[in-house]
Amino acid sequence: MLSNLILKLTNIRASELKAAMMSFVFIFTLMASYMILKPVRDAMPSDWGDVTLATQWTYTFIFSTIAVIVYNFIASQIQLRYLVPGVFIFFSFSFILFYLAYQGVFTIPHIGKVFYVWISIFSLFHISVFWGFMTGNFNKEQGKRIFGFITTGASIGAIVGPVIVTFIIDKDVNEGTILLFTSTLLLIPIPIIFYLNRLFKKMANHQNNNQTTINTKSLSANPLSGFQEFIRHPRLIGIATFIFLFTAISAFFYFTQTNVLKEYARGERRQILGSVELITNTLTIILGFFATSRLTTRFGLSTTLSIVPFFIAIFMLLIGVHPAVWMVLGLQIIRRSGNYAITRPSREILFTTVDNEARFKTKPFIDVAIYRGGDVFWIWVIALLGEGYFNLSLTPILVICSVIAVIWGVVGLRLGRKFDKENNI
Questions:
Q1: Where are the domains positioned within the chain?
Q2: What number is the average pLDDT over the span 199-204?
């Protein structure tokens, strides 16, 4: 009955349903594991000053880049069939080490700050590897129909994770125990990966399509091949630019949200932001089931990659004129749910047309290092525009954000048009 309902609500075909469902469970588990840790991480900055937080963001960028370099080196040495599950086993093991440190088995200096950086790296890395696995096994036509549905698994996981922290795990349970629980949860994808490999092989044989035989291959032995692929591939540079501009909008929204909520007490802010999270993930699920695949198949990637940026550009100007709390939070909900349900899966479809070097080496560089570099760059830009140097008020800062959103939309439009043209959409 559930299978028939999913087939009716989505554009997934019966022969793809098992793979789509297991991919759904896969990303659900990953996102739930991260969202269990996220409240633990986000509770720490309240005890730090602004300089310490900015320093942590900078450390996150530096160590994210180092992590990508190390990952690329390891990816050059082993087969893909071992690389993907190895990433999740590694993170699971790392959380066990943190658990032992919290239990006093050994000492990690400044463990809270180290933990903050490590979780920030994990938050992007595990999802990047997941989507590399997906884009290597679903072709571009399947991605347009299936990725929106898979994304809803992330949104449901994002709801379940905080529920576990809030209602199941006792507030007096320490960080170490939570890490042990997450470490165990991260091992669930391992059998799912091997099961998916068998499903993808059957799908490949059925479709006579070599797209899904990637797990029997190895990547280039050159650990720098991912970066070389990046600098000579216009599409990858375009995707990196798209993500860099996305981080700008995220930073400006964070700044705006912080400003409009200043008048509220901390408890009220927590309730408001909790409601924003719930509404965002609920809307993402609705869009993922009913809208995403229909938008991508009917209008192509030129529309799905640019619609959210252009929408934000218009409404940022309206907020600049009248920065009411409900308008800021409403647009924040639309921005995030639009990104999760429409922009992100559309962006991942672009990777269905590149080779394995780009999927498994260049992609983490873009998703992790470029993303975190953008965070650091734009947070300092905003600081300089505000109290740091220019002392601009909220309205002109939002105008600047609107201009950046237009540029973001143009980049998405160009990426989408090129993809649609190449694939005769």
A1: 2-422
A2: 86
The Cα 30–Cα 15 span in angstroms is 25
Q: What is the CATH number of domain 2-422?
A: 1.20.1250.20
Phi (first) and psi of residue 259, to 5 degrees = -65, -45
Query: Do 362 and 305 touch, CB atoms closer than 8 A?
Result: no
CA gap 365, 16 in Å, rounded = 30
**How many CB atoms lie under 10 A from the CB of residue 148?**
32
Q: How far apart are CA 142 and CA 145, in angstroms?
A: 5
243-255 burial: b if 16+ Cβ within 10 Å, else e: bbbbbbbbbbbeb
Determine the Cα–Cα distance for residues 135 and 344; give it in Å rounded to an integer: 13
Chain position carrying tokens 């408001």: 272
pLDDT at 215: 53
Q: Which residues contact 317 (CB under 8 A, 6 or more apart)?
A: 398, 399, 402
- Helix, strand and coil in the chain, % to nearest 5: 85, 0, 15
Residues above pLDDT 90, as percent of the chain: 41
Q: How far apart are CA 109 and CA 19, in angstroms?
A: 43
For the stretch 357-396, pLDDT in tens is 899 999 999 999 899 999 889 988 888 887 767 888 888 9
Q: How far apart are the C-alpha atoms of 186 and 196, rounded to whole Å?
A: 16
Summarize the confidence of residues 292-318 as an average pLDDT: 91
Half-sphere exposure of 280 (CA within 13 A, CB side): 23
Tens digit of pLDDT for each residue in 207-265? 655 444 455 566 777 777 888 888 888 899 999 999 999 999 998 888 888 777 878 77
pTM of the model: 0.86
3-state secondary structure 273-286: HHHHHHHHHHHHHH
